From TrEMBL:
This is NitT/TauT family transport system ATP-binding protein. InterPro entries: AAA+_ATPase, ABC_transporter-like_ATP-bd, ABC_transporter-like_CS, ABC_transporter_ATP-bind, P-loop_NTPase. Gene3D superfamilies: P-loop containing nucleotide triphosphate hydrolases (3.40.50.300). Residues 5-242 form the ABC transporter domain. The keyword Lyase does not apply. Pfam families: ABC_tran (PF00005).
Amino acid sequence: MVKHIKLVGIDKTFHTKTGDVTALKNIELDIESGEFLSVVGPSGCGKSTIMRIIAGLESPSAGTVQINEQELTGIADGAAIVFQKDVLLAWRSVLDNVLLPLDLKGITWFDRGNHITNRKKAIDLLESVGLKGFEDKYPHELSGGMRQRVSICRALIQDPKLLLMDEPFGALDALTREQMMYDLLKLSNKYKFTTVFITHSIEEAVFLSDRVVVMSERPGTILKELPIELVRPRDNKTRSNPVFNHKVHEIRDIFQSQGILAET
Ligand SMILES: Nc1ncnc2c1ncn2[C@@H]1O[C@H](COP(=O)(O)OP(=O)(O)OP(=O)(O)O)[C@@H](O)[C@H]1O
């Protein structure tokens, strides 16, 4: 497969008033084009920092990020981000929230043909996550899960090659979260973007991913990379597959051996 992202010797130290905080130490990671990669690790181990570095929102203290073999020196082109908290604009309708990134670029304003195409694309995206008929609603009229679906559609409206997701389902109830996983897999299969998915949930990571990266406590290092050889499409039966359970246990065992998870 084609290499999309390469992290080489990434360190990150934050200089704060109370002293230096080393968040990441020697992160080496290759991510293939179209791969679904999850990062799991304890709170504060630097997961969000890795994501921000890949997005170009934060620069590393040492090491380099390469995207399509080009060293990243600013904001990553062709990347979109979804955070745990949706950041929809209260005064824009659902449809206009999805179209926001294009409006900000001025794409829809001057070209009527594009405007119609983009509206259709936004409506199709909303339909594919079960939000047909909600185009004219406003964020306050939606549930948390619906708002997060709109956020995902907004991220996808620009056809990103890379989707960065920072605990996107962390604030949702268990049932909605499960549905969101199916929705995301469907979108990922349709649009074939590369995904970097940050989560605290071992099961979620194994269910969704081609590979799971397990991180240590801060300063975050990569303890292990586990390929997840479960067939796609993933469905309810995936969870009763012995490979699924084996991988979940393997990751739990790593956290236990590190003292990150203690049974007593
Ligand atoms: N801008 C910043 N300035 C100072 N310290 C920071 C900054 N951003 C992150 N840190 C510190 O770096 C470490 C890693 O933070 P990060 O948010 O990447 O962890 P995380 O694994 O995503 O945590 P969580 O799972 O709790 O969201 C933490 O100790 C955090 O306090």
